[in-house]
C-alpha cells in the first residue's frame, strides 16, 4: 500500500515571515532615474528680515467679504543691492505664492478693528501674474508674535 505521507518534511520556519531587520539580499533597481534639478525661487538676491507663519486674507469688493488667500509663511525680503523690501507669502503645502508686492513708504499698516492679532494694508499685488490693487489682512498666531516680528520691520506701525 502507498503511504500518504508528504514527499518533504514540514519546517516551522518556512511559514514565518522575514524579520524587518533581516537582509534578504534582494536588489531593486529604480524604474525612473531622477536628476537633481536646481530650483530658483527668485529670492536668491534677497535677505529675509521677517519669516513667520500666518494666514492671509484679501477683501472681495464684489461679495463685500473677506476671502482666505492662503495659510503659510510670510517673508519680508530686502534686496541686497537696491535695498527694496518686498512681501512674499507662500502657502504651506503647495508653496504657491499668495502675496507678492513691494513694501512702500506710502503704505500704512494698521491693526484690524476688533482683532489685535491682525493687520490691514492696501497694496498693488502681483501674486496672480496680474497687477491688482488689493486690501489685505494678515492674522498671526498670537499678539506677541505679531509685535515681536513686525516691530521695526514695517514702515508704519501695526
From TrEMBL:
InterPro entries documented for this protein: PH-like_dom_sf, Ran_bind_dom, RanBP1-like, RanBP1_RanBD
Pfam families from the UniProt entry: Ran_BP1
One Gene Ontology molecular-function label: GTPase activator activity
Main subcellular localisation: nucleus
Keywords: mRNA transport, Nuclear pore complex, Nucleus, Protein transport, Translocation, Transport
Compositionally skewed regions (Basic and acidic residues) per UniProt: 1-13
Acidic residues compositional bias, start-end: 14-24
GO BP terms in the entry: mRNA transport; nucleocytoplasmic transport; protein transport
Region (Disordered), start-end ranges: 1-31
Residues in RanBD1 domain copies: 27-144
Record's GO cellular component terms: cytoplasm; nuclear pore
TM helices/strands, residue ranges: none
Cell compartments where the protein resides: Nucleus, Nuclear pore complex
Superkingdom of the organism of origin: Eukaryota
Matching SUPFAM superfamilies: PH domain-like
Name of the protein described by the UniProt record: RanBD1 domain-containing protein
Organism: Gossypium raimondii
Top-level taxonomy: Eukaryota, Viridiplantae, Streptophyta, Embryophyta, Tracheophyta
Amino acid at each position: 500500500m502507498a503511504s500518504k505521507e508528504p514527499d518533504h518534511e514540514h519546517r516551522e520556519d518556512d511559514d514565518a515571515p522575514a524579520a524587518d531587520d533581516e537582509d534578504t539580499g534582494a536588489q531593486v533597481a529604480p524604474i525612473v532615474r531622477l536628476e537633481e534639478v536646481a530650483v530658483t525661487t527668485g529670492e536668491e538676491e534677497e535677505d529675509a528680515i521677517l519669516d513667520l507663519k500666518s494666514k492671509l486674507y484679501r477683501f472681495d469688493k464684489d461679495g463685500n467679504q473677506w476671502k482666505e488667500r492662503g495659510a503659510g509663511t510670510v517673508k519680508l525680503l530686502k534686496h541686497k543691492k537696491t535695498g527694496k523690501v518686498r512681501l512674499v507669502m507662500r502657502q504651506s503645502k503647495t508653496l504657491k505664492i499668495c502675496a507678492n508686492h513691494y513694501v512702500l513708504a506710502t503704505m500704512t499698516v494698521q491693526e484690524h478693528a476688533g482683532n489685535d492679532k491682525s493687520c490691514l494694508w492696501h497694496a498693488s499685488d502681483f501674486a496672480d501674474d496680474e497687477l491688482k490693487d488689493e486690501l489685505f489682512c494678515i492674522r498671526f498666531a498670537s499678539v506677541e508674535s505679531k509685535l515681536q516680528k513686525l516691530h521695526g520691520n514695517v514702515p508704519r506701525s501695526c
